[in-house]
Amino acid sequence: MKFRVTGGPEGDRGISVGTRRYEPGDVLDMPQQKAKWLVDKGLLEPNSSSRYSPEPADDTAEDEVSNYENAVEDSTAEEID
Amino acid sequence: MPTFVHGKGTEVLLDEFDLSSYFNSVDTSRTTDTAETTAFGSSAKSYIVGLTDGTLSLSGMFAQDTDGSDEELSAILGAATTPVVTVNLSAGTIGNRAVLAKAHQTSYSISSPVADIVTVTADFNASTDGTANLTYSIQSGVQLTTGASIAFGSLGDLASSDNAASSANGGMANLHVVANTLDAAVTIKVQDSADDATFADLISFTSVSSGTKTVEQKAVTGTVDRYLRATASSAATSGAITFHVAFARY
Question: Rounded CA gap, B167 and B97, in Å?
């Protein structure tokens, strides 16, 4: 799922994922569950073209559908390095 | 078996100076006022907590070196800018304890006995000075750096410190850049993380100019996640930097 780095309250907080660096305004791809704490802190927000549900579904079938939808969305979403 | 800590590994950072080699004793004290609430009919006294306070005392050897104990302790007495002090216990290991303070120097004494070395003593009184988000002016925290010199090509993410849980009330970070020969500016940050994999910027210190030694204290409010680390980046192509970062949760 794609998220946009908001920068937090002051708008200047970036994100480091491994060796990759994402500054405010950048869009990154991250599993929804891994992104949850950053969304809760207001440092990430779902990119406008993505669908985000605050409580990830446990149902495997729904996950598969979600993954399929994300894959479709990913194929059209802009990648930012 | 408890893990005891020997005092010989203590490190004293005062503003942009590592003065450890001049001191041989450090005392820090944090106190909380209490106001009595005992009423008629009580069998025992009761209190509510009030304001916190803290003091710090350094003692050691007099030296008239440039950037030595006498020069620096003389310079900060009555200075308009409140000194920033970090005392690292068993220094050199990320995660070890530190005491962070912003404190006015209240006294500076020199003792010159006929049969012994000349010594100095300095006392400090912690003060928030109304600094943004600085809830407490002296607080116990953790070291996020080893204090080793880092060459220009080796800057990056340092190891994380695990607090075992997040905290909710913000905190403060001290940065002391005590040596710097980098040929470009360096950006130093404190980051936090809930999973030790993805880190978010928590505090961004002011960019440190090429070859500049500096000190800065910044504070934040809100949630500080479980893991903390320091990170540094620079476009430098030569030189090295020695910096210390410590963070205290409120």
Answer: 17
Tell me the shortest Cα–Cα distance from B21 to chain A, in angstroms. Answer: 37
Inform me whether the pLDDT recorded for A66 exceeds 50: no
Query: How remote is the C-alpha of B20 from its chain's centroid?
Result: 13
**ipTM (interface predicted TM):** 0.80
Residue with tokens 């996020």: B144
Structure-token pair, residue B17: 């100076």
User: Looking at the complex, does the CB of residue A42 fall below 8 Å from at least one CB of chain B?
Assistant: no
Q: Identify the helix (H) or strand (E) that includes residue B177.
A: strand B171-180
SS3 (DSSP) at A57: coil
User: Is residue B245 within a helix (H) or strand (E), and if so which, with residue range?
Assistant: strand B240-249
Of B195, B222, B225, nearest to A34 by CB-CB distance is: B195
Domain range summary for chain A, segments of one domain joined by +: 2-73
pTM: 0.88
CB-neighbour burial class of residue A16 (10 A; exposed 0-12, middle 13-18, buried 19+):
buried
